[in-house]
Amino acid sequence: MRCLIVDDNDHFLRVAGRVLDRGGISVVGVSSGLDAMARFDELDPDVALVDVDLGEYDGFELVERLTRAARLRPPCLILISARPGSDVADLVEQSPAVAFVAKSDLCAELILSIVRGANGHGCPVADRDPA
C-alpha cells in the first residue's frame, strides 16, 4: 500500500514514515501542505494522511479539494491530528475523509484496517498488492 503524509511538522513526518514503513505501508511521499495537491496527483497514493492543522492551511479544506480533483477514483483520505478526535468529530463527519486517527494512535495496522474497511465506500484500494 502506498501512502502520502501531509503534515507541517517535520519531526512527525519522519516518525510516522518510519512507523508506517515498518508496518508494511510504503510512504511514497510527504508534503507540508503547500504542494499537497501536486504531490497527490504525481504520486497517486492508495491513501493519504492529512493533518487537520497545517499551519496556514486547513486540512479539512485540503481533503475537500483532493476529493473534488479526483479523476479516476475517489481518494482514500484519513484525517490526523494531535488533538483528540472529540475536538473535531463533527468536522470529520462532514468531510469526505473516511476516518480520523489521533497521531498518538498512528500505526500501520490501524491504517490498513481503515482502508480495507472503507474499500467500496469511497476508499478503493488501488490495483496494487496491499501490504
Using brief descriptors, characterize the structure shown.
40% helix; two-stranded antiparallel ribbon; disordered C terminus; 131 residues; alpha/beta; five-stranded parallel β-sheet
Structure at a glance:
It is built from 5 helices and 7 strands, in the order E-H-E-H-E-E-E-H-E-H-E-H.
What average pLDDT do the residues reach?
Answer: 86
As residue ranges, the low-confidence spans are 124-131
Give the overall shape, derived from the CA principal axes: globular
Instruction: Report the portion of residues in β strands.
Output: 15-25%
DSSP strand count: 7
Strand order, biggest sheet? 2-1-3-6-7
Given the structure, what is the number of helices?
A: 5
Order of helices and strands: EHEHEEEHEHEH
Rg over CA atoms, rounded to whole Å, is: 13 Å
The main sheet comes to: 5 strands, parallel
Structure description:
- By secondary structure, the chain is α/β, with parallel strands linked by helices.
- Helix content is 40%, strand content 22%.
- It has helices at 10-22, 36-43, 59-69, 85-94, 108-118; strands spanning 2-6, 26-31, 47-51, 53-54, 57-58, 77-81, 99-102.
- Strands 2-1-3-6-7 form a five-stranded parallel beta sheet, sandwiched between helices. A two-stranded antiparallel sheet has the order 4-5.
- Helix 4 links the parallel strand 6 and strand 7.
Blueprint of the fold:
Layout: E1 2-6, H1 10-22, E2 26-31, H2 36-43, E3 47-51, E4 53-54, E5 57-58, H3 59-69, E6 77-81, H4 85-94, E7 99-102, H5 108-118
